[in-house]
Amino acid sequence: MHFYENGCKLTLFDIDENNLLESKLLEYVSDQPTEMIYHIGDFSNFDTSQEKTRFDVLYLSSFTPDELHRFEINARIDPSDRVGNFPAWITANPFSPLVINALAMLKVGGLLILQSYMGGVDHRAHTGYLEACRVQLRRAGMTLLDVYAFQETLGIKLFVAVKGAEIIPRGRLTKFHGRSGVSEPIDHLFCA
Fold first, then answer.
1. Measured between alpha carbons, how far is 126 from 177 in angstroms, rounded to an integer?
2. Which one of 44, 66, 91, 113 is CB 3.0 to 4.6 Å from 96, fit for a cystine?
3. CA distances from residue 179 to 118, 140, 183, 184 in whole angstroms, order as listed
4. Mean pLDDT per segment of 10 residues, for the chain of length 192 residues?
């Protein structure tokens, strides 16, 4: 809600499986002057090709279909195969088709911020993983800017990419929210 509280228009998708979110959103937005559009439902059923609005930021937080996609790939690839690891990740495409299709909703210069909590990949064992992420995003017209990971819980990662090739000036993060009260030091794994 940080973007919204700072005057940015927000389009929000959530499943709201416990029927709690919509009433809280209505209560929250009634006090705010900024526009918020929200969809209660499964984002994987949303036809991104029909969306006319182009967004400055696409923020995905533990998007389950994407997390399951990586989890299934991770289970198939042998991390001890240092030679076959990279081609296996490149072929498998670490980001789900849903995420790649959603990138069409970003403006040129728009940011993808993707936090991954479940189905995370141990980048130390899977040496081809980060490069495969960079390559897949590049094929989708994105430039991977940064990847951060928790130092101990290696599967918890934060990816930042920009649509187009423009490298934007930015500072380094010193922490990011890891859900469920998990907080630990982070490593900056990749910087464009």
1. 24
2. 66
3. 11, 28, 8, 11
4. 64 75 73 68 74 80 85 84 75 91 90 84 86 94 94 88 80 76 83 80
- By C-alpha distance, which of 173, 87, 165 is closest to 131? 87
Radius of gyration of the chain (CA): 17
Take residue 179 and report the two structure tokens written for it: 């859900």
Predicted TM-score (pTM) above 0.90: no
Provide the token pair at 84. Answer: 């076959």
Q: How far apart are CA 70 and CA 59, in angstroms?
A: 18
| Cα–Cα distance for residue pair 162/139, rounded to 1 Å | 13
Those residues with Cβ within 8 angstroms of residue 132's Cβ, 6 or more apart along the chain or in another chain: 86, 89, 90, 92, 93, 94
Two structure tokens written together for 8: 């940015």
**What letter represents residue 115's amino acid?**
Q
Helices (H) and strands (E) in the chain, counts: 6, 7
Distance between CA atoms of residues 192 and 189, nearest Å: 10
Contacts of residue 114, Cβ cutoff 8 Å, sequence gap at least 6: 59, 60, 63, 66, 95, 99, 158, 159, 161
Q: Which helix (H) or strand (E) holds 111?
A: strand 106-116
- Both tokens of 111, joined, read 């940011």
